[in-house]
Amino acid sequence: MLHAVNLTKKYQENLALDNLNLVIEPGDIYCLLGANGAGKSTTINLFLNFIAPTSGKAVIDQIEVSKDPQAIKKLIAYIPENLVLYNELSGLENLEYFVGLAGMKYQQDELVSFLQEAGLQSEAFKKRVKTYSKGMRQKIGVAMAIAKRAKVLLLDEPTSGLDPKASNEFSELLLRLSQQNVATLMATHDLFRAKETGTDIGIMKSGKLVEQLSTEEINHSDLEKLYLNHMNN
Amino acid sequence: MMVFRVAKKEILEMTRSGQFKWMLGIVVALSVVAIYISHVHWQEKNLQRELAQEDARSLWLAQGATNPHNAAHYGTYAFKPQFPLSLIDPGVEKFTGVSIFLEAHSRNEADNVAAADQTGLSRFGDLTPDFILLFIVPLMIIALGHQSVTKEKEQGTLRIIKTQGISNQQLILGKWLGNYAPVAILTTIIFILAALFIRQIDWKFVATMWLVYLAYFAIVNSITLVISSFLNNSGISLVILLAIWIVSCLAVPKTASSFTNEKHPYPTRQEFDAAVAEDKKKGLDGHDPWSEASKKLEQETLQAYEVSKLEDLPFNFDAFRMQKGEEHETAIYFKHNEKLKEVHQKQTQVYRSLAFLSPFLPTRFLSMSLASTDYSTHWNFADAAEKHRVEMQRVLNTNFAENSKLGEWSYKADASLLSEVPEFNFEAPDFGEVMDANKSNLLILTAWLLGSFALLFFASTRV
Ligand SMILES: Nc1ncnc2c1ncn2[C@@H]1O[C@H](COP(=O)(O)OP(=O)(O)OP(=O)(O)O)[C@@H](O)[C@H]1O
Ligand SMILES: [Mg+2]
């Protein structure tokens, strides 16, 4: 579903992403780990077409992202670290608007069911977003992905700053979506969640993917050791 | 349509913000007050004018049996009617007179000829509907729209939007519509309110003026969104847009006005009067039988009628000479006023060529023209008053010449002569004439409209 082929991004002399090769299949939850500045966001932004690659290509569902960005938009959903919505609109109205911008029109009861599916408590649906907590806003992001029937989720540290319960709920949502064959690429600093939720893990360092493994192959403490090892070299 | 979804959301967001409610409330209140005050003034002035006009006519008729030349010196007034749409745009009325004294031997001016500011372009600060439309509404558009795109960039919502599928063009067009809708509704309300107060409404004029202002606001709205699209910071966007507002609505009109007056200055009142007096001295004076010109006229007339004495002429030569003198003076006034008019026309030319500098200018000119409160209409009025004066002198002098003998200054015409002098009546130019005279303004406004849309399209590719 998601392919990075020799994907490279240079900012002047700074090699932000160095020859990345990556394959993510439907149902996979691929977690990108790595220190600040390792190139995780750069990778995600290349798949989002927010930036253009210096060389190589990002491919989603056989379509090269920079060649046909409009076609890509139909497939993807993006949740950043801090999903900002329109404060003066309710969660329901925000959902309706953003889904509308994807060219989809739903009845109110359908929209409500997406919010329920994303785990937002029903008292909040009609409240203005300015009264929402961060966790509630991230749930609107998940509801947007569900409503859009996205085949690919691109998540940039979506759970950072969430409390453990909210973080856990978010992971469960991801698992449910992966059962529906959604392919997920998620940047995170949370080793524990990556092991719990992810199917695959990639460790990045200075723009390079230095380690790839399946979460089934490793336990929590070994993962931590491996990660720190890479960071200390 | 996605465009309408964006517009709907923009409006929904606006209606929920306190800032918007306050702003709209203030502008609506200002508009209502402006229209009401203008209406009261309009009615007052109209009543005054109607009363003064009736007064002048009855005073004229009340002279009864009188010497025609006395009546000519007694004189009367030509009044410019108060035009309905001056309620919305009083234009240059402030600088031009509304009445002209019509008498023997001189063409009087309404007090406009040498007024310092010939244009009224830079008139600022009167709470009239045109002030709100020309200055305040654009400010409102800027206040509402300056952060339309920058805010989405600052918050990060633009990133989410960009992953949704809507194109930049659709997004910006939707924002354009969302920002324009409240302004269009407000403009329509202002015009409907004003129309309710206007007597003898001519819909062609009102509708066209409404469209002119809608076009003006569309241009301002596009420029606002262009700036908001290009920039990343709402504060900078606001500052730049305010600077654009100051330049287009204040600086450019003011500069255009001084530039034009410098390039084609009007003579001062003194210069004008001196030039007229100079020319008058050179020619026939109807009251002076001893001047060279008088003697020459005497000879020619005696020859033409093949008589040897003035007494033998079939008419009163005194009155005949006065009519000839009048015709001579009329020609002098005509000549000098033509010069003024030439200056006016040259100025108009310059203004037209400068109108591309700011959409404010063509809008201002069209608005005044449609309201019949521009300088051209005033010139038409002054010309009509002069024509009326000439006709009045002709009627009076002819009666004098045909019904009295030479030297019979005590002759009194029947009172019915006074009503033979028609009442002065001035009609504003009709719709076709106004459109014809404003072709270049319409063209430039249209060019601005299209140009600003083109720029907006370009800006939307850069979001
Ligand atoms: N717009 C930019 N211009 C120049 N350099 C950039 C730009 N964006 C990112 N970089 C550089 O690219 C490198 C990778 O940054 P990136 O944001 O991908 O890191 P990251 O792994 O997401 O880090 P973090 O954990 O802090 O989010 C860094 O060295 C960063 O300084
Ligand atoms: Mg990052």
TrEMBL record, chain A:
Residues 2-231 form the ABC transporter domain. InterPro entries: AAA+_ATPase, ABC_transporter-like_ATP-bd, ABC_transporter-like_CS, ABC_Transporter_VariousFunc, P-loop_NTPase. It comes from the Bacteria. GO terms for molecular function: ATP binding; ATP hydrolysis activity. Keywords: ATP-binding, Nucleotide-binding, Transport. PROSITE patterns: ABC_TRANSPORTER_1, ABC_TRANSPORTER_2. The keyword Translocase does not apply. SUPFAM superfamilies: P-loop containing nucleoside triphosphate hydrolases (SSF52540). PANTHER family: ABC TRANSPORTER ATP-BINDING PROTEIN ALBC-RELATED. This is ABC transporter ATP-binding protein. The lineage of its organism: Bacteria, Pseudomonadati, Bacteroidota, Cytophagia, Cytophagales.
